[in-house]
Specification:
There is one protein chain. The protein folds into 2 domains: 72 residues; 86 residues, Gcn5-related N-acetyltransferase (GNAT) (Aminopeptidase), CATH 3.40.630.30. The two termini are 22 Å apart. The chain is globular. The chain contains 4 helices and 10 strands, in the order ββαβββαβββαβαβ. Helix 3 crosses helix 4. A 10-stranded mixed β-sheet has the order 1-2-3-10-4-9-8-7-6-5. Helices cover 24% and strands 36% of the residues.
Amino acid sequence: MWVNAQAVPRFYPNAVTLRPDAAALHEQRVGIDILAKSNPPGRWSVKDSFATLDLSRRGFDLLFDARWIRQLPLLIARTSSDVAWQRVDASDAFPADLFADESFAMFAGSRAGEVVAGGTLYRAGEVVGLSNVVAEPGDAVAVFRDLVALAAGLFPGLPIVGYESGNELAAAVNAGFEPGDELRIWVRERQ
């Protein structure tokens, strides 16, 4: 389990499970206890990467269930929608140092001068993580496809992974992503 007992950017967890096996459950409980004892400010969360934990007895509420998604790399990096994409170089919601990291890219998509979509990409090892995808329902499939093309342009030859739920999961699947295993996001208010 990975644990950060400090404040994290909005929509990012304080803890992430890294293994699904029974031997890891003890480590995960210890990690959550460490997090609880540190009493981080505000609301904090745990990404249960394998949907194996029941944290309700530890004061957590289930925020949502989701599924991992994955996409093989594209050979041609070309966006296909009428959304104009621009790489973002700063945001109040994220630490400034993150934008200096060559493995990180945030994109905003505009139409007629108005931002209508967005997403972030992060290269980690031999994959690219896709997160924080924002799109209007009618644009969602095209936005997922465009973000795959943007990832292929920045990080050629690497598969793309992320997780989604609900309508966003359906849009990702319709854009060519393969759904994978379940995961859960748990939240807890400061005691």
